[in-house]
Amino acid sequence: MKYFIGNWKMFGVPKSISILHKINYYYSKDKNRRKYRVIITPPYTLIESYAKYFKKKKIIIGSQNCYQKDQFSSNTAAISPYMIKKVGANYTLVGHSDNRSEGDTNEMLKNKVHFALKNNLKVVFCIGENKKEKKNKKTFSVLKKQLSKVLEKKFNKNNIIVAYEPIWSIGTGKIPSKNELEKTAIYIKKVLKDIFKKSPALLYGGSVDGNNVEMFKKIREIDGFLIGGASKSSKKFIDIIKNYYR
Ligand code: PEP
To answer: Is ligand 1 within 6 A of the CB of residue 229?
Structure first.
């Protein structure tokens, strides 16, 4: 199974659902539709209405984050995995670099993964090195730490997807070379196999568009994409899927 996940970040109001109508129309008619899933993570404010609308349709709705506690608590503005699941989301991102840079620690991320899985949300766990770490050849050690400090053997790997998103690539138009990404993806899958015996799906994220997807699709270890900027346009998002299967 392949995955095309659109992360809207801080974008969208109720009428932005028109973008998803177009994507859903393409998806429901696509002859390749059984080979992949489309998941969109709008902001919290839109999850309930979008999930209700797409309940019996193809697009799956997820959340961009969740709080590291179960059910209810006294943390102002926090949204728990329980609350997210109850309004119809089926996935959540955990550990996006935007949230790591705002203070998410490995311990917090472990709790997020734990409580998300407990509440029947599938987890898209994001990892990735920054520009300085890459320059200092620390990529592999950073990735290994991000994975091994959070993911545990006892977690159900069938409900986890890992998204490799080099921070220097997010929103910059810069992407790794094929050779570089291939080596990194092989390494990540090796670390994941050490934890789970069998690796969960691995996505790439960072400036993916309809042109560069031609290169990414040649990498066997990559099972799909986490797409930021290009997911806010139905045409750009559909182009990625079209060119992937061309
Ligand atoms: C992201 O923020 O997860 C992302 C991949 O963004 P972009 O596609 O815009 O680089």
So the answer is: yes
Q: What is the Cα–Cα distance from 221 to 112, expressed in whole angstroms?
A: 26
Q: Which CATH class is domain 2-245?
A: alpha beta
Using one digit for the tens of pLDDT, what is the confidence trace for 153-201? 999 999 999 999 999 999 999 999 999 999 999 999 999 999 999 999 9
Mutating to test ligand 1, I would choose from 91, 207, 239 the residue with most ligand atoms within 8 A of its C-beta, which is 207
Query: CA 192, 198, 203 angle in degrees (round to 5)?
Result: 55
Question: Does pTM surpass 0.90?
Answer: yes
Pocket probe mutation, ligand 1, options 208, 225, 239, max atoms within 8 Å of Cβ: 208
Which residues are known to be catalytic? 96, 165
Number of H helices, E strands in the chain: 10, 8
Residue 93, classed as helix, strand or coil, is strand
Q: What is the pLDDT of residue 57?
A: 86
The answer to whether the CB of 205 is under 6 A from ligand 1 is yes
Report the distance separating Cα 51 and Cα 40, nearest Å: 10
Q: Two tokens at 22?
A: 């177009």
Tell me, using a 6 A CB cutoff, whether residue 93 lines ligand 1: no
Residue with the nearest Cα to atom 4 of ligand 1? Answer: 228
Where the chain has pLDDT below 50, the residues are none
CA angle 147, 41, 102 (to 5 degrees): 55
